[in-house]
């Protein structure tokens, strides 16, 4: 009887999931399912904290009636944070295959128009800048000409470097400096920072700025919500013990989240002003292109102001590949700082 019931339930479950996958084909992929689950969980968490507050805090409701702007600004921040989360999640981090495709297409165009075939991409301040179509999909790309791309990448490394033509075995593409293959996305990402499970995508060159704004908004929202909880507990404690227990538990969760978000925000501020990535900081000893670079030297830093400008103002449609500094440049960066360097921001 038990075996029969078990088999029946299994068959019913299989039929129900088959029907579900037929209506929503995207759910048949387990990775997509887990990403969707995390997104639903994140939105639910965002709704729980203010929802509980508005359900129990009569003072807040009265205050909203008297002064609606206060609550309106809070709700605006709430919506902006969620919108920023979905925008960041939907932005491509910048795939190497897309950059390669852009380079090869530019090279083919230059050849067709009989222009200088040795300049497939423009050069700006020593970095290679490539215009990329937003809708390109790297995985479906079939390489037609590896020469232009390979030459371009090799020029980004100092002459004689052993990793100049290192090819990713999964993507079968020559990796430029600062790129890394993400095993979750199964693609090489330009200026790879980390793979964010909550976003369901990598954080890389094209979405790092959006990711920073998302953390900032999330931190502000978390701080504001914590203040609202503290105000409630200070004025309403001992009215109903079980409500206070729920409020204290939620405030504890908010406090832990706030500490984590503040640390994350500060860490990414440090990464931005020094032009580093999380991967380069955490795995510095194991990153092939950082071998031989002295400790406390930021090889890609161009100074505080320039780093901030590139991070904030770099166009979204550009994939900017930075060259590895030469030995002379590294020696220059590793010498002790003077007061003048600190004043002119050359120390970072
Ligand atoms: Zn790869
Ligand atoms: Zn990834």
Automatic annotation (TrEMBL):
GO biological process: protein targeting to membrane
PANTHER family: PALMITOYLTRANSFERASE ZDHHC12 (PTHR22883:SF301), ZINC FINGER DHHC DOMAIN CONTAINING PROTEIN (PTHR22883)
KW Acyltransferase (keyword) present: yes
Protein name, per record: S-acyltransferase
Entry domain remark: The DHHC domain is required for palmitoyltransferase activity.
Organism field: Olea europaea subsp. europaea
Topology class, membrane: Multi-pass membrane protein
Family listed: Belongs to the DHHC palmitoyltransferase family.
Transmembrane segments: 36-56, 68-87, 211-233, 245-273
């Amino acid at each position: 009887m038990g075996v029969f019931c078990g088999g029946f339930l299994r068959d019913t479950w299989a039929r129900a999931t088959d029907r579900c996958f037929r209506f929503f084909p995207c759910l048949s992929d387990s990775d997509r399912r887990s990403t969707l689950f995390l997104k639903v969980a994140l939105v639910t968490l965002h709704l729980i904290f203010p929802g509980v507050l508005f359900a129990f805090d009569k003072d807040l409701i009265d205050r909203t009636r008297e002064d609606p702007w206060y609550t309106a600004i809070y709700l605006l921040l709430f919506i902006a944070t969620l919108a920023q989360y979905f925008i960041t999640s939907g932005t491509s981090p910048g795939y190497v295959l897309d950059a390669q495709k852009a380079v090869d297409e530019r090279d083919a165009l230059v050849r067709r128009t009989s222009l200088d075939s040795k300049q497939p991409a423009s050069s700006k301040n020593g970095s290679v800048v490539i215009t990329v179509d937003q809708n390109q999909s790297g995985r479906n790309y079939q390489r037609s000409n590896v020469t232009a791309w390979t030459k371009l990448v090799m020029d980004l490394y100092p002459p004689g470097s052993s990793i100049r033509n290192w090819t990713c075995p999964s993507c079968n593409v020559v990796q430029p400096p600062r790129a890394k293959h993400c095993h979750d996305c199964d693609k090489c990402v330009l200026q790879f920072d980390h793979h964010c499970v909550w976003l369901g995508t990598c954080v890389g060159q094209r979405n790092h700025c959006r990711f920073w704004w998302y953390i900032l908004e999330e931190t502000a929202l978390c701080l504001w919500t914590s203040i609202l909880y503290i105000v409630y507990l200070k004025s309403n404690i001992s009215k109903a013990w079980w409500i206070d227990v729920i409020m204290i538990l939620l405030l504890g969760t908010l406090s832990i989240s706030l500490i984590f978000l503040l640390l994350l925000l500060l860490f990414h501020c440090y990464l931005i002003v020094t032009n580093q990535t999380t991967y380069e900081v955490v795995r510095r000893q194991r990153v092939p292109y950082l071998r031989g670079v002295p400790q406390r030297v930021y090889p890609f830093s161009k100074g505080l102001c320039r780093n901030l400008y590139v991070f904030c103002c770099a166009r979204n449609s550009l994939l900017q590949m930075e060259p590895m500094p030469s030995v002379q440049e590294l020696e220059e960066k590793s010498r002790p700082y003077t007061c003048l360097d600190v004043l002119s921001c050359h120390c970072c």
